[in-house]
UniProtKB/TrEMBL annotation:
One of its GO terms (cellular component) is cytoplasm. Monomer. It is found in: Cytoplasm. Consists of three domains, a large central CORE domain and two small peripheral domains, NMPbind and LID, which undergo movements during catalysis. The LID domain closes over the site of phosphoryl transfer upon ATP binding. Assembling and dissambling the active center during each catalytic cycle provides an effective means to prevent ATP hydrolysis. It catalyses: AMP + ATP = 2 ADP. Its EC number is 2.7.4.3. CDD domains: ADK (cd01428). Keywords: ATP-binding, Cytoplasm, Kinase, Nucleotide biosynthesis, Nucleotide-binding, Transferase. It comes from Chlorobium limicola. The lineage of its organism: Bacteria, Pseudomonadati, Chlorobiota, Chlorobiia, Chlorobiales. Pathway: Purine metabolism; AMP biosynthesis via salvage pathway; AMP from ADP: step 1/1. SUPFAM superfamilies: P-loop containing nucleoside triphosphate hydrolases. PROSITE patterns: ADENYLATE_KINASE. AMP binds at T31, R36, Q57, L58, V59, G85, F86, P87, R88, Q92, R156, R167. This is Adenylate kinase.
């Protein structure tokens, strides 16, 4: 099964992808996590992406498509995968279609911008795994430490309020058109069109996980 999780920055894509990929035994492909790993390793892609990411802008389609194409060659993708943060532009969605990567489900996680600002200020991340916490809404068992490794959690450089606002603006301009793109495709009844579902992204992490698993297993 191949699934796209669509939603604004901070909608909870990474948090949910962690659970859904475990439940369905498919890998999570997070372009954001891949880029952060490249930045940390100071690879050529990482060096180019760092400034763009810190400013809350989108990395070029070419770089992203190259990363994703390489990742999809890995044998762990043979049973499917869960895209988190990709595609992010119409050009990326079109490229995926052109590569004949069959998508079965697109799940949109819907959260208002005002809620997102609160979420981002409390986010803490385990950089190596991408596991995500919130100091208030989804705290780790031990303050400041990852549950599975005990390693320290960090605050992302792009989580400053001003940068979050910029990322939201870019989301509405460049990524939100994918909602119409995928939901229109699904409603036209075209063969092989992915099923499109919008779910409410507020409530507890567990409630949202159950909503997503519910729509994935109900059809
Ligand atoms: P990326 O890492 O993909 O960032 P994003 O899409 O902006 O999304 P986030 O990771 O910020 O949010 P999320 O939806 O995963 O929410 P999370 O689960 O963490 O991309 C980073 C950058 O890389 C981009 O800005 C861009 O520069 C570049 N990039 C990446 N992909 C790209 C692409 N395809 N094309 C071009 N550029 C690309 O949750 C957020 C917080 O809320 C956490 O603290 C969490 O604990 C908390 N939370 C989660 N669920 C709940 C809940 N139900 N209630 C309360 N709090 C909750
Ligand atoms: Zn994320």
């Amino acid at each position: 099964m191949r699934i796209i999780l669509l939603g604004a920055p901070g909608a909870g894509k990474g948090t949910q992808a962690h659970y859904i990929s475990k439940a369905l035994d498919i890998p999570q492909i997070s372009t954001g996590d891949m880029l952060r790993a490249a930045v940390k390793a100071e690879t050529p892609v990482g060096l180019e992406a760092k400034k763009i990411m810190d400013a809350g802008q989108l990395v070029s389609d070419d770089i992203i498509l190259e990363l994703v194409k390489e990742r999809l060659k890995h044998p762990d993708c043979s049973n499917g995968c869960l895209f988190d943060g990709f595609p992010r532009t119409l050009a990326q969605a079109e490229a995926l279609k052109k590569e004949a990567v069959q998508i079965d489900h697109v799940v949109e996680i819907d959260v208002k911008d005002s809620e997102i600002i609160t979420r981002m200020s409390g986010r803490r991340v385990h950089l190596a795994s991408g596991r995500t916490y919130h100091v208030q809404f989804n705290p780790p068992k031990q303050e400041g430490l990852d549950d599975e490794t005990g390693e320290p959690l960090i605050q992302r450089a792009d989580d400053e309020e001003e940068t979050v606002r910029k990322r939201l603006e870019i989301y509405h301009n460049q990524t939100a058109p994918l909602i119409e793109y995928y939901s229109g495709w699904a409603s036209e009844g075209i063969e092989n069109a992915p099923k499109y579902r919008k779910i409410k992204g507020t409530g507890s992490v567990e409630e949202i996980r159950d909503r997503i698993l519910g729509v994935l297993t109900s059809c």
